[in-house]
Amino acid sequence: MKIAIVGAGIVGVTTAYELAQDGHAVTVFEQRSAAAEEASFATGGLLAPGVLSPWSAPGTMQMPSYFGSQAPLRLGSALTLSELSWLRRWRRAARACAKSGEPLPPLRALERLARYSHARLQHLTESLDLHFEHSAGTLLLLRTPHDAEALTPALKALRDAGSTIHEVDADTARRIEPGLSPSLALTGALHLPDGLSGNCRQFALLLRQAAQQHGAQFHFGTRVARLASHPVGVQLDGEPESRPFDAVVLCAGVQSAALLQPMGQRLPLVALHGSSVSAPLREELHAPQGVVVDVQTQTTIARLGQRVRVSGGAELGRGTAQAHPQTLNTLYRVLGECFPGGVTHSSGLQVWRGARPMLPDGPPAVGATTVPGLWLNLGHGASGWSLACGSARALADQIAGKTPDIDLEGLCAQRF
């Protein structure tokens, strides 16, 4: 088949590879100048398990405070009606999860896809001999007893799926991560030895090369102005007519909602912006060895080669292109509290702010639309890096008319 893909973030690149590997003629259109330059550029690095990524789904961690200087979720001064509607649905889902104390279907769908994606990523890494910055092990810091209580639904989803989770005391946590500050007050921690962190953009660039070896073509600096049907296709900026394809896969992140609306396809997709700071390693013994999640602030600290990346925050609504000052203050504060002396702040700092395209229940939309030939692989939110390889393989199987190796219940776009 002749297939167009809109978007070359981590989801678009993995989709291009899987479809090209299956023998399809794949063309990728990306408005930026290279792959993984927007939401996939400087992600937090947490790969698995998916439900432990902060902001992966409502109710996975403690209910956030929406106001105040320490609020993990910050609301812009002018929210649109669609953003207000999304926020109401997200809060309703979070309350339902907290009330039940059990992992609801969206949470189970998210964890199921994350586990499948983890296995697919490992297969690709080994079979293609991909070398990218990564580290093993995930440690969740529990500063108060409430932190553990807030994780109950997510932990149950993990245990039900067979994940290994060790409840450890503060001393054991420091043996796992020797660089943790001795003055950091902890009631304990949760250790997931199978957790991973990795450099998302490095992986995307390597897989793009592998896709090209299978014949995939990438057109950068090319913006898709609209989608077409009868026949399905894409119309590029500056071109009077659309280009026909046998199928179009939309992986364009937050821009996808505007492209879908004229097609009669409406998704409650919004941009939930997050930020990260990447700093050069200063002292090996004072830096994380794997990835650490501070449950209280919903912040991750990941070791990526000779750098440490701290990420977090969630901003909904209009704002500047720069990271929110209070979000940055939180990132620097948490990094200093957990790993003082581990990085250098004098030079080589990289500050980034990117949009997480999120649906209000958490999981992405993967599969066909009601428009023949138009497919979706979008809305991965904070879990795009964790879910990309699995959702791409599942979508490729669907397009080929095969039954995917994973149950896709709770992932179709028609659930909204």
How would you summarize the topology of this molecule?
Layout: E1 2-6, H1 10-21, E2 25-30, E3 46-48, E4 73-75, H2 81-100, H3 105-127, E5 134-142, H4 145-150, H5 152-160, E6 166-168, H6 170-176, E7 188-198, H7 200-213, E8 217-220, E9 224-228, E10 233-236, E11 243-244, E12 247-250, H8 256-260, E13 270-280, E14 291-294, E15 299-304, E16 307-316, H9 325-338, E17 350-358, E18 365-368, E19 374-378, H10 384-399
Parallel strand pairs: 1-2, 1-12, 2-8, 4-16, 5-14, 12-19
Antiparallel strand pairs: 3-7, 5-7, 6-7, 9-10, 10-11, 13-16, 13-17, 14-15, 15-16, 18-19
Helix content: 25-40%
Mean pLDDT equals 89
Structural class: alpha/beta
Major beta-sheet overview: 10 strands, mixed
CATH architect. name of the largest domain: 2-Layer Sandwich
**Tally of separate helices:** 10
Terminal Cα separation, in Å?
Answer: 29 Å
Low-pLDDT parts are none
Percent in strands: 25-35%
- How many separate domains make up the residues? 2
Shape from CA axes? globular
How many DSSP-defined strands?
19
What's the CATH C level of the largest domain? Alpha Beta
Element string (H = helix, E = strand): EHEEEHHEHHEHEHEEEEEHEEEEHEEEH
CATH superfamily of the largest domain: D-Amino Acid Oxidase, subunit A, domain 2
CATH topology of the largest domain: D-Amino Acid Oxidase, Chain A, domain 2
